[in-house]
Amino acid sequence: MKKQFLNFLTLGVLVSSLALISCSDNGGDPIIPPGETEGRFITVAGALMGTNPGDGNGGTMVYSVTKEEAKDPETQISVYTGGFGVKSNRTARLQSSEDGSTLFNIAYTGDNGGEFSRYTVNGGGNFVQSDVSVNISQYAGTSPRWLKLFDGDKTGIALNMANIAANNAPTEENPNPTTPFEYYRGVATILALDLQESLISNYVQYEIPLTEEEEAAGHTIFRLDGSVLNAAKDKLIIGTWMRKYNVATGETEGDYERLGSKSVVVDYPSFANPTVITSAVGHGDNSGYRSHYSYLADDGNIYQATERDPNGSHILRINQNNEYDDSYVFSLNNALGLSGVTIEAWKYAQNGKAFALISHDGAENGFVVWMDLNARTASIVDLPYDADLEFNQYQGFVVDGADVYIAITPVGKNGNIYIVDSNSGVASKGATLVNQPGNHYIGIF
């Protein structure tokens, strides 16, 4: 969320300012909910199929309209016939500026994998690429995970975990190693990208150990993603995807007793002093897939979703001491009265309200859920759901004041932009999204 620094010139200004804003719990800088952006473009993104319908492996197209057009059901948007193809061999990893005037992209896999591009949004299929680009593949690989921080469009964080190996575990070739096994670890890369100057501003590479007991059992961090800056802007919290190896065979284990949900906390902007924090509430991963999975809320705390959680997805809270608050328990299974709830993507809106795109046991399709993080309640938004509606590759939401824009299209079928009021959870149908066989729309930016 944006933060505003106030110069209190007089006591009267101080009093009136405090009446209009709410401050973070630690007495730090106030956190201001997002306002509406006049003249903002709404950019929709669509993924083309590669081999199979809905795989999104054929590249990514984008098309932009005004807010007024996005809200009008009579507007017809066909990103696949009138849109612009952004650089990416497979599904692009897109981010947008806070005012919607700029798109940021890092190409995913292929000859240009890891190449950062910046595009000016001019409406329709008119996107102009900046003359300056940078490739981060030599540091973070050709398939980096990355997200833009909410810091005024200054910084993107790219992450990678590579070369996971044992210090000395038994293998078929070496069943009796001469030194004892201690751990499986990979080399983590954390890279800061200056979004305005299109250059790498900092990067580090190191191993991130777990506890001796956890590592001795074969647990390790498999992937890093879903980074978020804390309220004080001095720590970066990074989500993890965990893995466990059988230390006797070296094979990965698909079914194992999971540890509590873990995040990596590093100093910002140096990325020094990595530490691992663990939730006793959630037991799933929290790296997300192609979208933000942690958000700084108006109350100054960070809220984080889990996936692959044996008890269904949770929303976890990280307090302003950069530790999990295990007194905060918000289970989506319990709140919705369902089982196997999985948050595919989600978005914090304002004033404790948020939306999640979910799947759950016994249902073929995905659903949109309205959440009140303060009350810890959730309900399914009233929408026309289709058996071919999937959200597993969904990336982007736009928050504009109380409005949240979501693209909802079943694979290979037409759909719509829906504008959902974050105060009430009520959805209004917007522009029609014209689809093609095998394709689907994956976000709004």
From TrEMBL:
Residues 1-27 form the signal peptide. Keywords: Signal. It comes from the Bacteria. The keyword Signal applies. This is DUF4374 domain-containing protein. It comes from Algoriphagus yeomjeoni. The lineage of its organism: Bacteria, Pseudomonadati, Bacteroidota, Cytophagia, Cytophagales.
